[in-house]
Write a structure and sequence with these properties.
CATH architecture: 3-Layer(aba) Sandwich
Largest sheet: 5 strands, parallel
CATH class: Alpha Beta
Number of domains: 1
Number of strands: 9
Structural class: alpha/beta
CATH superfamily: P-loop containing nucleotide triphosphate hydrolases
Radius of gyration: 17 Å
Shape: globular
Distance between the termini: 14 Å
Order of helices and strands: EHEEEHEEHEHEHHEH
């Protein structure tokens, strides 16, 4: 029996409001064998959030211990709370041959790519900057100042889209989800071919 081929890592990234979360959730419904990485965070759970489903909730001291031991593929501090992708959880899945999806911001994506050069980067872009603004305003969950900060960051993030392996314009959720699924499927097919060879 051939050795287990390690699973692949797909990093789905892009500016806030581009719709990467929506596309990843739709992808997971189409391809339930994929494993979606769950971020660790030091912030307190919000109402309805469950441990191990939405986040892995850690005390600040525990987070720092893991970070000091290089236990995160990427991490960042946002609004006084820390977030990170646990290296052990991702490697456990890839070692078992499972395909892993990371849905993270471009800064985190850059960190993971340095650590895992074989990871595939997929950038989710809005159809236009005006549409990105409309989506952020439609959320109704942030102040105008917070929206402006996100838009300012998005300008820089959109400039690095051409450094990614793939760019998907999220102008239609169904079409964009199919494009994302095609990318994952084509890599899986190539991996099967490589194993046979």
């Amino acid at each position: 029996m051939p050795d287990q081929h390690p699973g692949e890592v797909f990093i789905v990234s892009g500016p806030s409001g581009a719709g990467k979360g929506t596309l990843v959730q739709a992808l997971m419904q189409r391809m339930p064998d994929l494993w979606l990485s769950i971020s660790a965070t030091t912030r307190a759970p919000r109402p309805g959030e469950k441990e191990g489903v939405h986040y892995v909730f850690l005390a600040a001291e525990e987070f720092e211990c893991i970070r000091a031991e290089d236990g995160f593929l990427e991490w960042a501090e946002v609004h006084g709370n820390r977030y990170g992708t646990l290296r052990s959880a991702v490697e456990q899945r890839t070692d078992a041959g499972q395909t892993v999806i990371l849905e993270i911001d471009p800064q985190g994506a850059e960190q993971v790519k340095r650590t895992m050069p074989s990871a595939t980067l997929v950038f989710i872009a809005p159809p236009s900057f005006a549409e990105l603004r409309r989506r952020l305003e439609k959320r109704g969950s942030e102040t105008p100042e917070q929206i402006e900060r996100r838009l300012h960051r998005a300008v820089a993030e959109l400039k690095i889209a051409d450094t990614y392996d793939y760019v998907i314009i999220n102008d239609d959720v169904t079409r964009a989800t199919e494009e994302l699924a095609c990318i994952v499927r084509s890599h899986a097919q190539q991996r099967i071919t490589d194993v046979k060879d």
